[in-house]
Write the structure tokens for this entry.
Amino acid sequence: MRSSTLRWLVLLASILIMLIMGVQLFWLKIVYSFEQRTFNTNVVKSIRGLYEDLDIVDTHANHLQDLIEHPSTDYFVFRVENIFEEDSIASYLQHELNDFDVLTDVYVGFYHAGHTNYKRTIYIPTVATRYSRDVNNPNIFKRDYNYVLLFFPHRNRYVLAQMNFWFISSALLFIVLIGLAVILFFFYRQRFLAEVQKDFVNNFTHEFKTPLAVMKISAEVLLQDKITGQPERLKKYATIIESQTQHLQDQVERLLQIARSDRKDLPIQKKPVRIKDLIEQAVTKMQPLIDEKKAEVETPIDDDTNIELYVDRAHLELAVVNLLENALKFSVKPHIIINTGKEEGNIYISVKDNGIGIEKKYQKNLFKKFYRVPTGDVHNVKGFGLGLNFVKRIIDAHHGTIKINSLPGIGTEFRLILPATVNN
Ligand code: ADP
């Protein structure tokens, strides 16, 4: 499966997982409203039952509904004319509430028309009450008629407790979905690593195939019988083998160095270093490639620029070598300028080329391990995609930053910016 298809599938699966979670939350909300409505209906049914049990109003039964009010969520008020039967009202009410499955504590208040407080309040706990009785006194609702108040102090908790099954099933569903998301993440990462590995093996093969082929041809020439009579030719092919072996050896050494440094933090040994010397040394190291590419490399640093920094010389030099090597590799007729100077209290080292440039959308990935700007399956410029990652690690170890300035077809500038801890 191509990685872009895989990415879309993973995105789709993540959206589906979020959608299922959203739908589940929506259902929970619906169930909560339903449980609330059921509770209210059962309370009203209990009050109607009470009206039928006791002769506390004279009104015709058809209008019973008009005698019941629901002034706020936890409160119900129902009109009574005969309020002298407080204890029997409370006891019948308890039965009715039990019959209609309203199994939570209730405060019953008896109100006489026009008064500012209840004449009497009775707290009726449920048999196995789990909640504290220490609740606020019920609110008063001023009316010009007698009424009985029902206040359910733990109503909300009770309604939520009715939803236990839903909570448990939702929690299980969420756990399963989160588990799926984690599996998806690891699957995607595994696939990504597998692809990175595949790219690396491809690059590795390309990097080693050409020198090996050249060495094989040279060896075949050397094996010809007549070669002993042609010392010039013999020397030429032996030199080719020697230089290709050296190239392979260098590559292996670089890979090993990166692999070794990968396991732990870079061991940084800081010393005062003249940046101009460091740059010149890096250019000298790259001289064979500069000559091969017939490149023009300028270092317009005048001798007075005596910037001295407290850095790890070997590592920083390697960083400049890597940038210079890239500038040479990714330019057709390389014209490279390496410079240094001060910038907003920091010291910078810049390597600027006139090469193929890097599109903006690829720039953020450049420092990732094994990353190479995609060029289809064309491997005309060799490499492992490790150089810039290594440069970044070196600059990170010096608490610096890297800036890229690049335009496709025009060229690229990499700017290493280091804090000027020791300089003059
Ligand atoms: P490598 O050069 O081995 O491929 P690097 O990590 O050094 O790996 O670079 C990663 C990628 O960044 C390169 O493959 C190339 O696509 C791009 N790149 C780096 N430097 C330049 C440059 N100076 N000009 C154009 N592209 C560059």
Q: What stands out?
A: The domain at 270-424 is CATH 3.30.565.10 (Heat Shock Protein 90). The longest strand covers residues 335-343. Residues 322, 326-327, 330, 353, 355-358, 366, 371-373, 383-389, 412 surround adenosine-5'-diphosphate (CB under 6 Å).
